[in-house]
């Protein structure tokens, strides 16, 4: 297999962008593709897969390259020489021979293979920061080792059928006609899993709005909200709007969805997605402060709070998050989550329901947040159901959701007039 030097050199530059300049992997990969528009599908696949494998297994590959473990997370220690060595370790452990590039002179494949037999701590072999492994072990106990293994596996590509335009069987047949093989995921009626890697966003069926890209676990959140046609629904942390679109389909385009977010650019993207998907009931609104929330007090039949979180449940598709997160950031997010849960819940009308959701696996971001909320607001709210999706058990992303009922308003007591009394009495 002839390896183009230009592709590998771009892998090195992109790894520098990610680990030294702290750019997000998906943005760095997208940037590289834009600057190499003549690359064919083979080069693009080689580039993307190599980058993500290096990011996913960074600490282990750093060890295989013979570099000091203490330096793997220190930006000042990550230069081109180290990056070429890390890539070489990834290439060799995938069963390939090193190409005759000048940058690889002196790298011995047998040394790298020998280090694969080294007895090293699990955090090194599984490429996790020490602090993250310790925190997850503390919070998740005996379930953590299996989850830890699962999160290092590449994520499959799942599609969510847009039931406003088609059904799963018809979508599967259409994709098959276009040359794409998919399999239905039985427990989730809208889900198809791709059987080969492909840029799904260039597919005709995607451009026609027949499906969205959405992990199987994420597809379980919108149905958990229990929406019905004609309802008033708020998706209060809408972001790019994947769940907004799913809610619109479940509501059969009847009713009203308010998609709120603090970032206007995300709402702009959501409007484009609604147009493609044919979701007519969604309206976007920027959260500009407490006034936005006050105007919507007791408005919603259903409220979805897919809050900002650590994203530890989706490390398979966002592996660079584990290198960019910190303990302080998780603690800050926990405070923000409780603030959102407390303030935004006022938008639910009495008798309405709220779903608190994260793509985290940490109890401190999940059930403990709900318990804390109920301890303070239990007179008005009750917990109906929790959804805990363990990636080691499902093979999909880790998710959590809790559905809470706002208690109906107490009926006003009938006030009987006091009987008149005579002056004689």
Structure description:
It is a single chain. The chain is of the alpha/beta class and 425 residues long. The chain has 3 domains: 5-127; 158-213, Sun protein, domain 3 (Alpha-Beta Plaits), CATH 3.30.70.1170; 218-406, Vaccinia Virus protein VP39 (Rossmann fold), CATH 3.40.50.150. It has helices spanning 5-19, 25-35, 41-56, 58-64, 80-93, 109-115, 122-125, 130-140, 144-150, 168-177, 204-207, 221-224, 242-250, 264-277, 290-295, 321-324, 327-344, 367-377, 391-394; strands at 158-161, 182-184, 191-194, 211-213, 232-235, 256-261, 282-286, 300-306, 348-358, 381-389, 399-406. Strands 7-6-5-8-9-11-10 form a 7-stranded mixed β-sheet, sandwiched between helices. A 4-stranded antiparallel β-sheet has the order 2-3-1-4, covered by helices on one side. Helix 1 (5-19) packs antiparallel against helix 2 (25-35), helix 1 packs parallel to helix 3 and helix 4 crosses helix 5 (80-93). The radius of gyration is 26 Å and the shape is globular.
């Amino acid at each position: 297999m002839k390896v183009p030097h230009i592709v590998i050199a771009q892998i090195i530059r992109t790894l520098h962008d990610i680990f030294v300049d702290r750019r997000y992997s998906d943005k760095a990969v997208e940037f590289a593709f834009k600057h190499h528009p003549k690359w064919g599908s083979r080069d693009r696949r080689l580039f993307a897969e190599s980058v993500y494998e290096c990011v996913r297994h960074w600490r282990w590959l750093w060890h295989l390259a013979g570099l000091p473990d203490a330096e793997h997370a220190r930006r000042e220690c990550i230069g081109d020489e180290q990056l070429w060595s890390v890539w070489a370790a990834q290439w060799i452990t995938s069963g390939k021979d090193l190409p005759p590039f000048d940058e690889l002179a002196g790298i011995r494949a047998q040394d790298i293979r020998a280090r694969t037999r080294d007895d090293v701590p699990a955090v090194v072999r599984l490429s996790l920061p020490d602090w993250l492994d310790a925190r997850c072990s503390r919070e998740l106990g005996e379930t953590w080792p299996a989850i830890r293994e699962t999160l290092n596996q590449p994520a499959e590509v799942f599609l969510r059928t847009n039931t406003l335009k088609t059904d799963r069987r018809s979508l599967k047949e259409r994709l098959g006609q276009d040359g794409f093989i998919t399999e239905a995921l039985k427990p989730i009626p809208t889900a198809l899993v791709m059987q080969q890697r492909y840029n799904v966003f260039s597919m005709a069926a995607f451009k026609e709005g027949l499906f969205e890209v959405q992990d199987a676990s994420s597809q379980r959140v919108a149905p958990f909200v229990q929406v019905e046609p004609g309802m008033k629904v708020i998706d209060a942390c809408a972001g790019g709007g994947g769940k907004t679109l799913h809610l619109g389909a479940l509501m059969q385009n009847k009713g009203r969805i308010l998609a709120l977010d603090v970032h206007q650019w995300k709402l702009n993207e959501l409007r484009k997605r609604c147009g493609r998907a044919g979701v007519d009931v969604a309206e976007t609104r920027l959260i500009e402060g407490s006034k936005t929330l006050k105007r919507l007090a007791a408005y919603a039949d259903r409220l979805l709070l897919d809050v900002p979180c650590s994203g530890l449940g989706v490390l398979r598709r966002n592996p660079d998050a584990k290198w960019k997160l910190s303990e302080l950031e998780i603690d800050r997010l926990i405070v923000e989550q409780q603030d959102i849960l407390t303030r935004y819940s006022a938008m639910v009308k009495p008798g309405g329901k709220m779903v608190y959701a994260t793509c985290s696996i940490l109890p401190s971001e999940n059930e403990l947040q709900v318990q804390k909320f109920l301890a303070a607001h239990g007179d008005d709210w009750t917990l109906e159901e929790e959804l805990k999706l363990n990636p080691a058990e499902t093979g999909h992303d880790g998710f959590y959701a809790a559905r809470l009922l706002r208690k109906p308003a107490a009926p006003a007591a009938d006030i009987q007039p006091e009987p008149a009394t005579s002056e004689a009495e």
